[in-house]
Amino acid sequence: MPYIKNPFRKENYVSGWIGFYWLFVVNMMIFTVIALLVEPIWNDINQFLGNVIGLMWNWLAIILMVSVVLILYGGYLSVWNLKKKKAHKEDSPMPINVYNKIIPLVFFLGWNFMLYVLIDEGGEELRVMRPVLENLSPILFGLIMVSIGVLIAPTLRLIRNLSFSDSALNRVKSTGIILFLILTNVFGMLLPIIAPPVNAIKGDLPDKPQIMAHRGASYLAPENTLVAGELATEWGAVGWEVDISISFDGVFFLCHDNSLTRTTDVEEIFPDRIDEDVTMYTMAELRQLDAGSWFVDEDPYKTIRDGYVSQVDAEEYRGEKIPTLAEVINLTREYDLYLDIDAGLPSEGNPFRSFFWELLMEQLYDSGLGEKIMVSTDSPLAENMTTVGTGRDMINTHHALTNQEFRSLEEQGVIVMVWTVDSPSRFSQLWDLGVDFVKTNSLHILIPLDKPTWVVPYQIYFTVWILTAIMCITVGILVFLIQSRKKTVLTPSNNPQ
After folding, report:
1. Can you list the pairs that 478-483 forms with residues at least 24 positions away whose Cβ atoms lie under 8 Å?
2. Are 288 and 334 within one domain?
3. pTM for the full model?
4. Which tens digit of pLDDT belongs to each residue from 73-114?
5. 322 and 376 co-located in one domain
6. Full DSSP string of 327-361
7. What's the pLDDT tens digit per position in 255-285?
8. Domain check: are 220 and 87 in the same one?
9. Final residue of a domain: which of 341, 357, 390?
10. Spatial distance between the Cα atoms of 440 and 235, rounded to a whole number of angstroms
11. Which of 369, 390, 411 is a domain's end point?
12. Interacting residues of 106 by C-beta distance below 8 A, sequence separation 6+
């Protein structure tokens, strides 16, 4: 009796699983590429994952290493099972190990969930992928040029062999194919000129952006503390950004989170109140907390391990207190710094919620810092606090604006401050664009830079790509002519008998 395929038999699921394995590989590769492209916000991602998991680590590096292993694993399963399927007899079942079903399926779902969370939580931060691609554009353009050069010979052969019969339809098809091939090659050759990276600058290199320390020198000292502000000045920052909250008894102080658990020892001092909003504590209670030891114990940014902060200096952070806004103003005045205020309404249970902004603006106004204060608010009291130095307009924005948007702001004479940039490559691009202020956690990395990571005059960039295009085209045509000549010599009509 002849063998009849049963769609419900195990061997007929093999093709489906092989297809899934290939999908798994492609999916892992897409995830890995996206993870690499968001390099400027790796620190933020690691901090987010650390808060969720409860352990600060370089989680993204671990995830990327696992992703590479999964790509290799999925590729192995695809090729191995395809070879087994070809060698397998059709009338006997070909089982797939149950672990090779469960493992890729679990990681497929898990990694796609992480991708969803990244997209959902990342928001406008994911716009950093465009600048990263732009920074890599010379490599990508080079690959495009080489690919076009390699494809010129087969493209010319295809054009030569196209049929131009009397049929109008065939003539239209052939002409369309030729035009498509020519336009595709021309566009590929012109792409580096049409979309040059910002690193190819016209004219002189703009001045280096002035550095604002985000939450103080937050990678070198406990964030939002006086020692972080002092260290920022030692490294050469022109100002610092601080997060303002108000205590239950109406004193402004520094804290970024709604909870005190990440940056203090609140679990030891007030174990029954660890989930309570930070604005429900009095200032006297906040002063009992140690806001420095967590940085020493966790070394969250590995700056102690890497030697940017000595162990001796780090130990002095223990016992650091949460500072009041008055103390921050005094330090800012002493070191002649800019002060960038990031504030939000307190908890609904805080008695000062309804007139929070009025109280804050009054204290800032009375400080006498005037134009040294940068603050975003509609309060009329902030009239003398929203400009910088020359009295020009200023914008405080995310760093992922387009190049054209940055250039437009510069042409309008707007002072531009961007947040939060920790990547030297992105900082270099913003330098090339003429951005005025950059907020960063990584003072120890950006301040020592005396020039962008790479920059080239546009004239040189333009010349290099034109010469590269000419070279690729010339080589491609020569290959075509040489191959055509060999084919002519080897045809029977040209071979002597």
Report:
1. 479/152, 479/153, 480/152, 480/153, 480/156, 480/157, 483/153, 483/157
2. yes
3. 0.77
4. 999 998 888 887 777 655 555 677 888 889 999 999 999 998
5. yes
6. HHHHHHHHTT-EEEEEE----TTSTTGGGHHHHHH
7. 999 999 999 999 999 999 998 999 999 999 9
8. no
9. 390
10. 12
11. 390
12. none
